[in-house]
From TrEMBL:
GO terms for biological process: fatty acid beta-oxidation. Its EC number is 4.2.1.17. PANTHER family: ENOYL-COA HYDRATASE, MITOCHONDRIAL (PTHR11941:SF54), ENOYL-COA HYDRATASE-RELATED (PTHR11941). PROSITE patterns: ENOYL_COA_HYDRATASE. SUPFAM superfamilies: ClpP/crotonase. The keyword Transmembrane helix does not apply. It is an enzyme of class 4 (lyase). It comes from Actibacterium naphthalenivorans. One of its GO terms (molecular function) is enoyl-CoA hydratase activity. It catalyses: a (3S)-3-hydroxyacyl-CoA = a (2E)-enoyl-CoA + H2O; a 4-saturated-(3S)-3-hydroxyacyl-CoA = a (3E)-enoyl-CoA + H2O. Belongs to the enoyl-CoA hydratase/isomerase family. This is enoyl-CoA hydratase.
C-alpha cells in the first residue's frame, strides 16, 4: 500500500509514523485511518519493530476527525459502516505505542493519542474534545478514555465546554506522562521508544496487559492476574538473561525483542 497521508520511517527498532495532511491540520479522514491502521498492523507483525511512535506536525498532532467528510453523513451512513469502528484496532496493538504530541490534539486527535500506551507532549500541545461545538460528541473512545485518565469532573467539563487544556494542565491531570520543549520532543520520544524497543518483549507485553486490565478488572482480580503473569515470565529466556546480567554486572542481551 502506498501512503499519501502518513510518512513512515524506521529508526533502528522504532517505527516513526508522522501524520501528514498539513493543509487540514492532520484531520483524520477515512484514507488516513486506512493508511495508519495498515502501517500499524504491519509494524505489529514485524519482528524488526519493537516500539511505534505516532506524531504530527509542530502545529497539530491532529485537529480531529475530518469534519468536511462527516458533514453530510446520515445516521444510517454512520451506523451502517460502523463509522470509526476501525480505530479500535489501534488500541489492541501488541507493540508498545507512544503518541508524541505538539500543537492541537482535538477530538479524534486527542482520542488517537489516548489509544496509545502513553503520550509525551511538547509545551505547545493543546488537548480538547470540542465535538459539542459541532452538535455531536466524542466517537473514538474519548468519553471513556478521557474519563479514565483524568477523572469525571475534568472530563465532563472538557466535553461539555469543548475548552482546550494546555500541556501543563494535561500533565497535572495525568493525561500525558511528560512535557518536553517543542524542539526536543521528537528526539526525546524516539529515545524513549528506543529504550522500550530493546527491552524483553514478553515482559513488555505482560506489563501492558496487566496495566490495561486496571480499567476492566476489580483490584483483587487484577493483582491475581499480575501475579500469574509474573510467574509465567520465569519460563522465558529473557528472565534468565536479565537476572544473570544484573548478577554479572553487565548489560542484558534480550533475545525476544
Ligand atoms: C476538517 C479541518 C479540521 C477538521 C482543521 N481543518 N480542522 N478540516 N476537519 N477537524 C482545516 C480547516 O478547515 C482549514 O482548511 C485548515 O484545516 C486550517 O484550519 P484553520 O481553522 O484555518 O486553522 P486555525 O485558525 O489555526 O485553527 C486551528 C483549530 C481549528 C483551532 C484547530 O482548525 C479547529 O477548531 N478545527 C476543528 C477542531 C474540531 O472541532 N475537532 C473535532 C472534530 S470532530 P481550509 O481549507 O478551510 O483552509 C471529531 C470527533 C467526531 O474529532 C466524533 C463525532 C462523530
Amino acid at each position: 500500500m502506498t501512503y499519501e497521508t502518513i510518512l513512515t520511517e524506521q529508526k533502528g527498532r522504532v517505527l516513526l509514523i508522522t501524520l501528514n495532511r498539513p493543509k487540514a491540520l492532520n484531520a483524520l479522514n477515512t484514507q488516513l485511518s486506512h493508511e495508519l491502521i495498515d502501517a500499524l498492523t504491519k509494524a505489529d507483525d514485524d519482528d524488526g519493530v519493537g516500539c511505534i511512535v505516532i506524531t504530527g506536525s509542530q502545529k497539530a498532532f491532529a485537529a480531529g476527525a475530518d469534519i468536511k467528510e462527516m458533514q453530510n453523513q446520515s445516521y444510517m451512513d454512520m451506523h451502517g459502516t460502523d463509522f470509526f469502528g476501525q480505530w479500535d484496532k489501534v488500541a489492541t496493538l501488541r507493540k508498545p505505542t507512544i503518541a508524541a504530541v505538539s500543537g492541537y490534539a482535538l477530538g479524534g486527535g486527542c482520542e488517537l493519542a489516548m489509544m496509545c500506551d502513553f503520550i509525551l507532549c511538547s509545551d505547545s500541545a493543546r488537548f480538547g474534545q470540542p465535538e459539542i461545538k459541532l452538535g455531536v460528541m466524542p466517537g473514538m473512545g474519548g468519553s471513556q478514555r478521557l474519563t479514565r485518565l483524568i477523572g469525571q469532573a475534568k472530563a465532563m467539563e472538557m466535553c461539555f465546554t469543548g475548552r482546550m487544556m494546555d500541556a501543563e494542565e494535561a500533565e497535572r491531570a495525568g493525561l500525558v506522562s511528560r512535557v518536553i520543549p517543542a524542539d526536543d520532543l521528537l528526539d526525546e520520544a524516539l529515545k524513549t521508544a528506543d529504550t522500550i524497543a530493546n527491552m524483553a518483549l514478553p515482559a513488555l507485553m505482560s506489563i501492558r496487559d496487566a496495566i490495561r486490565r486496571t480499567q476492566e478488572m476489580p483490584l483483587t482480580e487484577g493483582v491475581r492476574f499480575e501475579r500469574r503473569v509474573f510467574h509465567a515470565l520465569f519460563a522465558t529466556d529473557d528472565q534468565k538473561e536479565g537476572m544473570a546480567a544484573f548478577v554479572e554486572k553487565r548489560e542484558p542481551q534480550f533475545t525476544h525483542k
